[in-house]
Each structure stands twice: as structure tokens, then as C-alpha cells.
């Protein structure tokens, strides 16, 4: 007995115990039969570690594992005096209980056993003549049977023997109960340790992949298995989470879940399923024949919501026992909570990334107004929350889409490319929602832009502005079905920001354009003011020059009428000619600076070129520029504005000599004119020569115009440095200049382009670096009519008629006044003079005059003021007025003369011009 109570390993002392018991009562054999559910720890059995943690709550309606008990089986048999196999594997427990009549805890002694009415065959075969049996009661339940047998000895067991075996069975039961409680205590401690270990493992990380790997590692540690899987469930679809086998982690599942298979069944019903043999279970009826083994599927449930399924498999048909299933069920409960926590953490982190990316995208709108820069930042932030292989932002321009920004685009789909609008763009414009393609390569609606053969998953997101669709944001991936509705919603948020960026950039550009236009207007205004100031300056200079030139011409011609020798006469002729030359230069300056509306009239282009070269003659000589002029000479007159054409020629010649002087200190300027023809059937193609259009050709005014027969072409060339090829297309743009700051406004060639366009012509250039530049000006030849008269500066017919009448000459310049009076006096007129307007007013009040010849610009009372005073006094004098003036540029002067239809003779003039004007006034 002492050995029994001091033994730590009961199975080791039980054989000795029953042997001693048999000897004590004179039995030749003994047996201890332990029933299933009794003392479960047997010699050589495998010890299974239980998980820790609180026992699961018995939730109402929750399905728990149920196992059928072993029928009439024997868990363990220990024998003495019998063969080893005598009672092993026999279904004795229930039969002996019935046959021996063990209804209570008291022992039963049966003598002459072979004649016992319920004698058991197994014991009869052993030769049992007397049987002493006592039950083992552990924890209130029958757990075994102690048998003492007399074999081949006709002597029954005594009552003392019965008391002894009762005491022994009670002691065995107590010891086994004690050891059971100790084992239970150890199991509880093991479970606590396992719970702590598993809990710490599952809570060590909130990263979902790490959590899933930890769950599977715990499963392998707690229950022997060959393979473990976790699939995540979103309420509709299962997705692979993690898998592990004996050789470590798997990157993909052993097999994808089938809709009618175990994993989906567990996910949809929320109930565990135990399959003891795959080969015979209906859920695996269609599985490959080579599959075998056992599997258990456990739902991972949190708050009555299935978040996943855990499958534990054994490749051999070794069913999971109740204890293993209980352990796995507890692990599933913890695993579900760990997965949910990781999901919540991942969702929170994803949401935080989304918010941070959106905040960064919004911040970029306030950091820059450069559209390309802002869109690049948006695409960078978008990639942080929605992975893509390439992305683009395209804006609607007419019936096309133009790429304005992108990331990792194919080379032939680069920024700046344009593509036609498709059915997809029309659909997203109507729906206002993103358009997703699961497999773009297999969808006929997708039209690849550039080398996009790699595209599978694809999404187009509308950019919606105030007026509707202004563009779209596209992202793509090499993965099939790469984008979901949730990602479409997120992409839409970025698209809203992109649309705001586009409209802000457009508004910014509009403001810049308006500011540029304002600055251009200011520049033009400043230029206009400069020209007005120059005009006033020229008018004053012209007035001061015209008076002495008038006197020089008049006096020289008066001297010519007298008796002088031939040499003096020749000198006087030269004097008159040079004075005329100076007068023409002054008139050209006046014409160039005159601010008036374009007036078309008969123009000889060669004369305008000749006049322009005379105006610029000094500038050309001072800059060492040689002129080579080859004018046609026989060009017919055409209807044009001579002043505007002269402005074009002045600009072109000035640009030429400035380029040559800055590059080489001088050069050769060529000016040519010619009459060319065009083919009626091919507009713009020349018949008698090459009509090159060259770089920068300006066809303004030519579109829609009926082809004409003949054109006047002028070429102004230089041998300067030439114009770079990349600059040539922009030379006619307003405010574009290659000159250094302060040396040009960039308006000259733009004005030339506009003037020639208004004349229905063309202007273009031909230039090569190092070979000089040639500008071509071409205008249509417009007939001026048969009776048109073109002023060619030819003097009128000399009239010898004598003058009759009284004339008052009002002129503040004494030399001019005396010269005019002398000329008129010699012609027979009665002449009086006044040096200012006030004295003239007194003379007119005192006497009648047939004609008043008056200068316009005089101190104190000008000629215009004198005319107005006489008009206010209702005098007839204003009807007999002839103004002589050198101021033909002042808007006041020109406006007054045109408004009142007053005759005017411009200074300088010849004697004959004066006499003819006086004659015509007196005849009216």
C-alpha cells in the first residue's frame, strides 16, 4: 500500500500492486481493467499540451464539437498470472458488470464460477473456479474493474477476501483520483502557460501578415498537423491570408477555395466542420483521388461576424480528438480577435495615409500655380494610396485629349501628345463617376494610347469643372482587376483636387495673359506717346526748316529771273535743287510721323523705297553700310497707303543695318523690286520665278482672297549674321525681340506683319546663320483706274499771266514774308504785309483784300486763330484765305484745314507753285 500511495507514476506500480493483492487472498491470477474515460494517461501514450486561456462560454445556439463514445471498449488492461493477450482487446467492461451483477460499489465474490449462470466465456476459458470483483469508482463514475481469480482450485473467496479487495479498490480509486486531479492541475497550468504564450505571440504585432503567421505557428505548436491555412472573409468573398506547413511558410494556398467546398461552407454558416477522412466525405466528392487525410475548418468569428476561416489538415487519416478540437476552438477565438484588431489597425493606418496624402495634395495647390508641378505632386501622393504602374492627366481640347502630366508613361505616350475622345470619356462625363476595366487588354472599349500592351487593370477618373468634363485622370496596372470601387472613390477625391488645380492654373494663366496684354498696351501707349512727342518735335523742326528753305528757293528763283551769267545761274539751279532735296527729306519725316487713319491712294512703290532710302541715307553712311538698289523702275501704281508701306520699309532697313553694324561694323544692303505673276489654278505659286515662302511666312489676308494676276515684290537683304533657325518662327510675334534690353520693343516686325496683312499681302524671311537675311514683302497690284493721277513731284506748267488784285501776306518770318511779297509784286499784284496776326486783323478791318496769304504757326495770334476771329465777325475774308505752312503733321493743323476746306500750300514751295495757288484762289 505504501508503494501505491507514494508512487509518482501509477502505471509503473500497478502490476506489483495487483500481484501482491493476488498473493494476499491466495488468488492465482489478477487483472485491472480500465475503461475509456477513466485513467486516460497510459504507459507509452503521447502527451498532448493544452492551450491556455479562459474556457469558452457556452453561448446559446453555438454549435460545439460532438464525438461519439467508443462502444464497450477497453482503455487499458494490466494482468497477473495470465497471458499478456488474455484480456486485451476484449469488450469486457459492460459484460462483466452485467454478468457479475456489480450494481453498487461493493465487491462480488462468486464461487464455482464455471457453474455460475452468467459465467463469462472469457473467464471460463481461463479455468476460473472462483471470481472476486470490485469496481473502481473515480469522480462518481465507474472507471474500471479489479478482478482476482482462482484457477483450478475449488475454493471460494471468503468475506474477508471481499473486504480486502474492497479496501484495495477504494485505495486504487482514491489514488487514481488524486493523480487525476494532479494531472488536471498540471493541465490547467499548461493551458495557462500556453494561453500566455499564444496571447503574447498574437498581440506582439498589429501587422496583419505577421498576425496571420503567428496564428498558424501557434496552431502547429498546439496540435500536430501537416498544413494550416487562413482565409480572410469580407462577407462575400474569401481571400488568401496565410498558409504554413512542416517546411515553413507558404506564399500561396494549397488550393483555392471552392464555392461548394468546406471553406466557403464554414464561412457562410459560421459552424465548424470536422472531416475525419477526406476520401469518404461528401464535401470532397469531386476532389483529386490522391487527396487523403483529415481536416477541420473553424470559423473565425467576432461579434457574430465571420472575419475568416482557419483550416488545419493532416495528410494521413488520423482524426482530431476532442481535446485537440477544443484547443483549436480556443485558438480560433483568439485568432479572430487578433485578426480583427489587425484589420482595424490596418484600416486606421490606411485611412491616415489617405488623409495625409490628400492633405499633401491639397497643400500643393497653395504652394504653386504651375499646372505641371501641381499635377506631378498629385500623382505622387496618389501612388502612396493607390498603387499604379503608370498614370496620366489629360485635358479636353476641342475633340481631343492632350497629356499635360504623367508618371512612367510609355515613350510614345509622352506629355504633349493628343488623342481622340472615346466612348469611355463620354460615359464618365455623363455619369460623373470613374470607369474601371478589369482587363483592359480584353475589352474592346479600351483604346491604348502609345505602347500600352502591358495594361490589364485600368481606371479613368473624370476631372469635372464648372462647365463639365475638362479632362480625365487615368491609372493602370499589370494586374488583372487591380482597382476596386473603394479605390475609385479615393481616386475621385484626387481628381477633384486635380480639377481645381487645372481651373486655378487656367485662371492664373488668364490673369497673366491679361496682365501681359495690359503691359503690352502700356508699352504701346508709351510708344504712342513717344511717337506723338517725336511728331511734335518733327513738326517744330520741319516748321523751322521749311521757312528758310522756302526763302532759299524763292530768292534763288528770283535771282534766276534777273540777268546773271551762266555760271551763277548753274549755281542757283544747284541751290534750288539742294533746297528741294532738303524739303523732300523734311516732308518724308512729316509723313512718317503723321498719326492718321490708313488712307489708300495711288502709290508708286519704287518712289516710296527711294524716299525711304533718302530719309535713312545718313544713318546708312554713318554705319558703313553700302546700298545696292535694283528697282524695277516701271512698276505700275497700286492702291495702298504710302505712309504705312514706308513704315514697313523703314523698319526692315533699320533692322538690317543695325544687325550688320553690331556684327561686322558695316555691310552690304540690297533693295530690289519686281513685278511677279501667280498661277490662277494654284494660289500662291509663281509662274515666272520661285515664290519661296520661307520660315515665318505670314499669310495674313491671303486666305479666302481670290487669286490675283500680278504682285509687287520687294526684297530687303543684308549680309549680316543671319537669324537662328529656332528663332525664325517667332520673329513676327508681338514683343519678341533678340535685341538687348532697352534697344527694342519687339513691335517692329509685328507691325510690319499687320500692315502687309491689311494690304492682302505676305511678308516672310529667308535666313541662314552666317549668310545674312532677306525679308520679302509682297502686295497685290490693285488697279487705280484709267484717270488716276499720281503725284510724281513734277513742276506744273509755267504761267506768264500777270496778276491783278490786292493781297495781304501775313508771315512772322521776315525773309519769307519779303520773298513772297517780292514774287507777288513782280507778278503784278498789289501786296501788303503783316508780321503777326494782330496787325493783320487791323489791316483787314480797315481795307478789303482779294486774298489773304497767312502762315499757320505765328506767335501771339496764329493763322488759325486769325481765321476763326474773322469767321466770327461774319466777314468774307475767310473765303479768300490761303494758308502757307511747314506744319503739315500737327493733328490740330491738319484737322482744321480738312474741316474748314481751306486751301493750303506746304513749305518749301517754288515761285511757280505760289503763283499757281494764288491764281486758282482768285479765280474761285
Write up this protein.
By secondary structure, this protein is of the alpha+beta class. Helix content is 41%, strand content 21%. The protein has 21 helices and 30 strands. A hairpin with a 2-residue loop joins strand 10 (294-302) and strand 11 (305-314). Helix 2 runs antiparallel to helix 5 and helix 13 (605-615) crosses helix 15 (642-664). The model is unreliable at 38-74, 679-708 and 786-801 (pLDDT under 50).
Salient structural properties:
924 residues
Task: Please estimate the helix content.
Answer: 40-55%
Mean pLDDT: 78
Q: Outline the biggest β-sheet.
A: 6 strands, antiparallel
How large a portion of the residues is in β-strands, by DSSP E?
15-25%
What strand line-up does the widest sheet have? 8-7-6-11-10-9
Question: Total strand count, please?
Answer: 30
What is the tally of helical segments? 21
Whole-number radius of gyration?
A: 60 Å
Structural class: alpha+beta
Q: Quote the distance from N terminus to C terminus.
A: 170 Å
Outline? rod-shaped
Query: Any low-confidence stretches, pLDDT <50, length ≥5?
Result: 38-74, 679-708, 786-801
Set out the fold topology.
Layout: H1 2-6, H2 10-25, E1 29-34, E2 76-80, H3 93-100, E3 108-110, H4 121-125, E4 128-138, E5 141-151, H5 159-202, H6 208-222, E6 227-233, E7 238-245, E8 248-250, H7 262-269, E9 273-275, E10 294-302, E11 305-314, H8 322-367, H9 371-385, E12 390-397, E13 400-407, E14 418-420, H10 423-431, E15 435-437, E16 457-465, E17 468-477, H11 485-561, H12 566-593, E18 601-603, H13 605-615, H14 617-622, E19 625-630, E20 638-640, H15 642-664, E21 667-677, E22 695-698, E23 710-718, H16 748-758, E24 762-767, E25 773-780, E26 806-810, H17 814-826, E27 830-834, H18 837-846, E28 851-855, H19 863-872, E29 881-885, H20 891-900, E30 903-906, H21 911-923
Parallel strand pairs: 19-21, 26-27, 26-28, 28-29, 29-30
Antiparallel strand pairs: 1-2, 1-5, 3-4, 4-5, 6-7, 6-11, 7-8, 9-10, 10-11, 12-13, 12-17, 13-14, 15-16, 16-17, 18-20, 21-23, 22-24, 23-25, 24-25
Amino acid at each position: 500500500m505504501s508503494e501505491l500511495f507514494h508512487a509518482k507514476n501509477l502505471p509503473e506500480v500497478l502490476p506489483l500492486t495487483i500481484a501482491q493483492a493476488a498473493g494476499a487472498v491466495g488468488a492465482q491470477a489478477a487483472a485491472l481493467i480500465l475503461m475509456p474515460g477513466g485513467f486516460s494517461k497510459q504507459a507509452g501514450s503521447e502527451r498532448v499540451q493544452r492551450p491556455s486561456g479562459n474556457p469558452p462560454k457556452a453561448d446559446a445556439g453555438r454549435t460545439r464539437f460532438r464525438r461519439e463514445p467508443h462502444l464497450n471498449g477497453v482503455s487499458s488492461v494490466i494482468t497477473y498470472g495470465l497471458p499478456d493477450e488474455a484480456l486485451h482487446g476484449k469488450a469486457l467492461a459492460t459484460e462483466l458488470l452485467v454478468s457479475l451483477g456489480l450494481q453498487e460499489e461493493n465487491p462480488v465474490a462468486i464461487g464455482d464460477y464455471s457453474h455460475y449462470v452468467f459465467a463469462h466465456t472469457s473467464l471460463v476459458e481461463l479455468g476460473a473456479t472462483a471470481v472476486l470483483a470490485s469496481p473502481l469508482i473515480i469522480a462518481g463514475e465507474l472507471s474500471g474493474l479489479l478482478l482476482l481469480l482462482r484457477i483450478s482450485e475449488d475454493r471460494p473467496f471468503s468475506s474477508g477476501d471481499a473486504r480486502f479487495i474492497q479496501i484495495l479498490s477504494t485505495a486504487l480509486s482514491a489514488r487514481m483520483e488524486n493523480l487525476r486531479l494532479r494531472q488536471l492541475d498540471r493541465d490547467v497550468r499548461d493551458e495557462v502557460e500556453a494561453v500566455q504564450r499564444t496571447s503574447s505571440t498574437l498581440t506582439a504585432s498589429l501587422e496583419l501578415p505577421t498576425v496571420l503567421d503567428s496564428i498558424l505557428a501557434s496552431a502547429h505548436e498546439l496540435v500536430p498537423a501537416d498544413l494550416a491555412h487562413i482565409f480572410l472573409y469580407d462577407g462575400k468573398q474569401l481571400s488568401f491570408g496565410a498558409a504554413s506547413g512542416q517546411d515553413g511558410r507558404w506564399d500561396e494556398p494549397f488550393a483555392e477555395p471552392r464555392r461548394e467546398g468546406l471553406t466557403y461552407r464554414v464561412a457562410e454558416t459560421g459552424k465548424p466542420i470536422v472531416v475525419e477522412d477526406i476520401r469518404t466525405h461528401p464535401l470532397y466528392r469531386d476532389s483529386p483521388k490522391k487527396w487523403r487525410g483529415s481536416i477541420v475548418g473553424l470559423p473565425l468569428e467576432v461579434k457574430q461576424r465571420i472575419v475568416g476561416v482557419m483550416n488545419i489538415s493532416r495528410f494521413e487519416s488520423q482524426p482530431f480528438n476532442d481535446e485537440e478540437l477544443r484547443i483549436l476552438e480556443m485558438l480560433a477565438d483568439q485568432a479572430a480577435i487578433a485578426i480583427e484588431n489587425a484589420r482595424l489597425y490596418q484600416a486606421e493606418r490606411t485611412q491616415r495615409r489617405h488623409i495625409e496624402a490628400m492633405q499633401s495634395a491639397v497643400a500643393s495647390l497653395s504652394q504653386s500655380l504651375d499646372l505641371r508641378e501641381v499635377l506631378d505632386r498629385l500623382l505622387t501622393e496618389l501612388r502612396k494610396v493607390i498603387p499604379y504602374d503608370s498614370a496620366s492627366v489629360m485635358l479636353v481640347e476641342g475633340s481631343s485629349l492632350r497629356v499635360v502630366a504623367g508618371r512612367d508613361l510609355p515613350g510614345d505616350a509622352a506629355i504633349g501628345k493628343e488623342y481622340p475622345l472615346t466612348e469611355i470619356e463620354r460615359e464618365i462625363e455623363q455619369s460623373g463617376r470613374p470607369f474601371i476595366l478589369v482587363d483592359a487588354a480584353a475589352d474592346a472599349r479600351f483604346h491604348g494610347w502609345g505602347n500600352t500592351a502591358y495594361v490589364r487593370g485600368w481606371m479613368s477618373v473624370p476631372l469635372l469643372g464648372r462647365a463639365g468634363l475638362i479632362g480625365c485622370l487615368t491609372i493602370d496596372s499589370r494586374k488583372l482587376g487591380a482597382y476596386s470601387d473603394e479605390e475609385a472613390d479615393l481616386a475621385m477625391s484626387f481628381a477633384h483636387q486635380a480639377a481645381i488645380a487645372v481651373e486655378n492654373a487656367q485662371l492664373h494663366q488668364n490673369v497673366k495673359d491679361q496682365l501681359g496684354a495690359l503691359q503690352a498696351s502700356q508699352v504701346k501707349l508709351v510708344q504712342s506717346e513717344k511717337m506723338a512727342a517725336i511728331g511734335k518735335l518733327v513738326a517744330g523742326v520741319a516748321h523751322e526748316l521749311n521757312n528758310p528753305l522756302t526763302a532759299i528757293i524763292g530768292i534763288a528763283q528770283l535771282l534766276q529771273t534777273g540777268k546773271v551769267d551762266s555760271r551763277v545761274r548753274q549755281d542757283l539751279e544747284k541751290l534750288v535743287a539742294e533746297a528741294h532735296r532738303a524739303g523732300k527729306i523734311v516732308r518724308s519725316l512729316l509723313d512718317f510721323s503723321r498719326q492718321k487713319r490708313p488712307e489708300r491712294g495711288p502709290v508708286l512703290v519704287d518712289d516710296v523705297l527711294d524716299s525711304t532710302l533718302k530719309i535713312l541715307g545718313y544713318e546708312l553712311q554713318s554705319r558703313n553700310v553700302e546700298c545696292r538698289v535694283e528697282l524695277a523702275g516701271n512698276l505700275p501704281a497700286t492702291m495702298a497707303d504710302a505712309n504705312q508701306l514706308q513704315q514697313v520699309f523703314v523698319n526692315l532697313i533699320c533692322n538690317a543695318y543695325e544687325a550688320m553694324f553690331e556684327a561686322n561694323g558695316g555691310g552690304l544692303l540690297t533693295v530690289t523690286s519686281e513685278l511677279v505673276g501667280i498661277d490662277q489654278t494654284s494660289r500662291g505659286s509663281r509662274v515666272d520665278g520661285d515664290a519661296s515662302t520661307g520660315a515665318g511666312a505670314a499669310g495674313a489676308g491671303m486666305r479666302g482672297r481670290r487669286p490675283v494676276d500680278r504682285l509687287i515684290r520687294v526684297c530687303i537683304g543684308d549680309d549680316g549674321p543671319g537669324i537662328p533657325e529656332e528663332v525664325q518662327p517667332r520673329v513676327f510675334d508681338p514683343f519678341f525681340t533678340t535685341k538687348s534690353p532697352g534697344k527694342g520693343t519687339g513691335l517692329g516686325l509685328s507691325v510690319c506683319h499687320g500692315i502687309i496683312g491689311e494690304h492682302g499681302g505676305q511678308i516672310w524671311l529667308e535666313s541662314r546663320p552666317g549668310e545674312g537675311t532677306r525679308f520679302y514683302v509682297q502686295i497685290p497690284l490693285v488697279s487705280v483706274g484709267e484717270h488716276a493721277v499720281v503725284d510724281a513731284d513734277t513742276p506744273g506748267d509755267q504761267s506768264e499771266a500777270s496778276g491783278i488784285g490786292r493781297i495781304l501776306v501775313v508771315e512772322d518770318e521776315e525773309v519769307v514774308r519779303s520773298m513772297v511779297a517780292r514774287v507777288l509784286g513782280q507778278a503784278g499784284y498789289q501786296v501788303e504785309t503783316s508780321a503777326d496776326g494782330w496787325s493783320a486783323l487791323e489791316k483787314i478791318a480797315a481795307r478789303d483784300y482779294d486774298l489773304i496769304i497767312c502762315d499757320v504757326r505765328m506767335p501771339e495770334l496764329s493763322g488759325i486763330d486769325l481765321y476763326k476771329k474773322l469767321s466770327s465777325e461774319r466777314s468774307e475774308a475767310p473765303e479768300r484765305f490761303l494758308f502757307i505752312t511747314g506744319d503739315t503733321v500737327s493733328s490740330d493743323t491738319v484737322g482744321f484745314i480738312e474741316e474748314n476746306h481751306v486751301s493750303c500750300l506746304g513749305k518749301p514751295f517754288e515761285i511757280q507753285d505760289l503763283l499757281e495757288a494764288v491764281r486758282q484762289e482768285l479765280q474761285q
